[in-house]
Write a structure and sequence with these properties.
alpha/beta, 7-stranded mixed beta sheet, 14 helices, 13 strands, binds glutamic acid
């Protein structure tokens, strides 16, 4: 089923039409609060605002899926293309049991502003399948992925919409999508998806890119405050691609990683955690859940982890981790959002009141999509760059746009989040106005 924007948009000011389960906060609705704040500061034209608060296209598919034992199940998949104003839609694919249309729409909405805040020639999109990838065998994951890719084949492509990894997906899943699309197209199509393994058109530096971007903006923010990274105590929530690499790179630059966690719980060691050893621990093939359990350090819950004494907190797991309930107990003075949407608007207001600096998700974790852009460009050229070139260009993009956001925040006396949205919205509106509105 395909719907051209109806059914999802907050046309009457809320996004509740997108909610799947009763009594649950709409992620898209909450995300809209940030947009509204920035739109008010920009005195955005209400006609333009109406366009920007609706997803361009939402695709919902039922995916027939055969288990290894022969049983057939039907899973639900989504692809939301929020905006095409600045170029093809761009954004990851999430495999997680909690995936809903509402969540995917919020994630596609954030991708729109994320791509614009780092000035990439992309719109915003996101996909998802409601499933638990940890409970699927490798061949089940491959079948599910190929059928999902085949079902969205008309709407994706290098000039239409370019997926990438997100929570629960990885370079191998991207390789299967690339292969499925290439087979159906009867043409090698590496630029249909980014975050691929290197041997099928991936970019050097893509796996580390999101964590590297987090490290770059943390260093840049500290520099603005006249502080150095060396010796700062850092807590990182989430030990997937983003959390583990952020922790590793920050430690290499002299920070002390005092807390880390995954979905099963956290670890605290005030003397500093050996992040490389922790990564080796979760990657050990005998560690079937790939969890931090059994690694050295004091065990604690994720909720306790967030409240640990530290200078810098990096939520790099999922949405809604910093809320009204725990915001006043957070000790960090600097928060860099490695995850998408980890802070609720209520908590964000409390941080700003308390003088806690928050580097917002759309800027802090934009390193991943920036190197996705480099990958897409390399795939289209058929010419692949060396890793130092990728990293140098990433650093330049992150620093330039961090500075632009920082300056706008100072000038307008708003938070970094509001400034990031203002810059992003301005860029999207400029492209929209130059193209003209085909209404
Ligand atoms: N899923 C990542 C994000 O949320 C990467 C998206 C991409 O590279 O397209 O930014």
């Amino acid at each position: 089923m395909m719907s051209g924007g109806q059914g999802g948009g907050p046309s009457s000011g809320t996004a509740s039409a997108n909610m799947h389960r009763a009594n649950e906060i709409s992620v898209f609705g909450e995300a809209m609060d940030y947009f509204n704040e920035a739109a008010a500061n920009l005195a955005l034209d209400p006609n333009i605002k109406r366009i920007l608060t609706h997803p361009s296209r939402q695709v919902i598919i039922s995916i027939p899926f055969q288990r290894d034992n022969g049983e057939l199940e039907v899973y639900t998949g989504y692809r939301v293309q929020y905006s095409f104003a600045r170029g093809p839609a761009k954004g990851g694919i999430r495999y997680h049991p909690d995936v809903t249309l509402d969540e995917v729409t919020a994630l596609a909405f954030w991708m729109t502003w994320k791509c614009a805040v780092v000035d990439l020639p992309f719109g915003g999109g996101k996909g998802g399948v409601t499933c638990d990838p940890a409970k699927l065998s490798r061949s089940e994951l491959e079948r599910l992925t190929r059928r999902y890719a085949a079902d969205i084949i008309e709407v994706i492509g290098p000039d239409k919409d370019v997926p990438a990894p997100d929570v629960g997906t990885n370079p191998q899943v991207m390789a299967w999508i690339m292969d499925t699309v290439s087979m159906h197209n009867r043409a090698h199509t590496p630029g249909v998806v980014t975050g691929k393994p290197l041997n099928v058109g991936g970019s050097r530096g893509r796996v580390e890119a999101t964590g590297r971007g987090v490290m770059i903006v943390v260093e840049a923010a500290l520099a603005k405050m006249g502080k150095a990274l060396a010796g700062r105590r850092v807590v990182v929530q989430g030990f997937g691609n983003v959390g583990s690499i952020s922790a590793k790179l920050l430690r290499e630059r002299g920070a002390v990683i005092v807390g880390i966690s995954d979905q099963y719980g956290g670890l605290y060691d005030p003397r500093g955690i050996d992040v490389d050893a922790a990564i080796a621990h979760v990657n050990n093939p005998r560690n079937v859940r790939h969890s931090l359990e059994g690694f050295a350090g004091e065990r604690l819950t994720n909720a306790e982890l967030l409240e640990l004494p530290c200078d810098i907190l990096i939520p790099a797991a999922i949405e809604n981790q910093l809320t009204e309930a725990n915001a006043s107990k957070i000790k960090a003075h600097l928060i860099a959002e490695g995850a998408n949407g980890p802070t609720t608007p209520a908590a964000d207001g409390m941080f700003s009141q308390a003088g806690v600096t928050v580097i917002p998700d759309i800027l802090a974790n934009a390193g991943g999509v920036t190197v996705s852009y480099f990958e897409w460009a390399q795939d289209r050229m058929g010419y692949y760059w060396r890793e130092p070139e990728v990293n140098a260009r990433l650093e330049q993009v992150m620093r330039e746009n961090f500075d632009a956001v920082w300056e706008l925040a100072q000038e307008r006396k708003v938070t970094l989040r509001t400034a990031a949205y203002m810059l992003a919205i301005r860029r999207v509106v400029d492209s929209l106005m130059t193209r003209g509105i085909y209404a």
